[in-house]
Amino acid sequence: MPVLISSELNDSSPPVREQHLREVAAHLLYICGRSEAELSIMLVSDERMAELNQVYRNRKGPTNVLSFSLMEGRDAEMAGNMLGDVVISVETAAREAARDKVTVNRRLVVLLVHGLAHLLGYDHERSDREADLMTKMEKELLQQLNGQRRKNMMKLAINVDHVATLREARGIDEPDPVLAAGICELAGAEGIVVHLREDRRHIQDRDVRLLRQTVKTKLNLEMGATEEIIKIALQVRPDMVTLVPEKRKELTTEGGLNVSGQKKKISGAIDRMSKAGIPVSLFIDPDSRQIKASRNVGATFVEIHTGTYADATSEKEQDEEFKKIADAAEEAFEAGLRVNAGHGLNYVNTAQIAALDTIEELSIGHAVMSRAIFVGLDQAVREMLALMM
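and the corresponding structure tokens:
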């Protein structure tokens, strides 16, 4: 097998998606024109890495990655197609991932690229020129890998529910969410989101039908999986639907959908939408169990709930919640699901989420509408788009 992964980690070590790492390594070999080469990847603890450093480099303490080439010296003739070993300390990688605010698995890929560059003959310690060449080569490899993940800039979908909330507060016909949707599209939004609730507290049936006729980008209908709303969705045929949990007394959607606890109900709704050609997204918490369930029931998308991240009251708490979102988006992407995110995002906390290349689209409503009171809706949308670049 071209790529062999061995692990000396224990249950307390950060979780590693070994299959994904194996696939990335195989693709890297292909990019480098070494598809037939054999590569060994060893995942170790800091303690083990420190031992290797002491024995082979006469240095104390762990480092993030070591490479042992079989293409040099007296081992070269016996190596055949074997490039050598890349040894990565997962504990050190986890600390560096936290520092850089990326997932552990993303950091492992960066270290794998660095280790592979060494096996291919690059060595940043030989000279400044060699260091520059190695850095350039690593950047090119990472860019090609990232090109597989996101080919386009992240999209912004605007939720216009709160325009309807203001209208319903007076019981009159303005402001009109249909008009607001048009302004958002002209400002650069690539999707319009509305939630047709059972109690019709804001968006009305009339809004959905008019939006279906006027939206030029993409209409995403958020909805509970109830028979009444399902029938309306099948009649209106939005560009996609997002199934969300719905409680009558909640101010806004609270938490993600429990997909694993109601697979039969949700898979039935997805099946009906699929037969009508309507892709389905499931609004879920950043939870591995819900991701697996979403894939199993046949969803096309998941929308990762960012509310807990947005409500964090300290930097430490926000970093912890961001990591959950990043890991969940990574897992969903690797599982073949398309990934969106939203809830509670604003002009302060959006940029960090927008940097995740596994996410295609952010759904934002309240923050944009709040900002629009002061600067106008067109400007509010453009400012949010600028944060996402």
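(Above: one complete record from the training split.) DSSP finds 17 helices and twelve strands in the chain.
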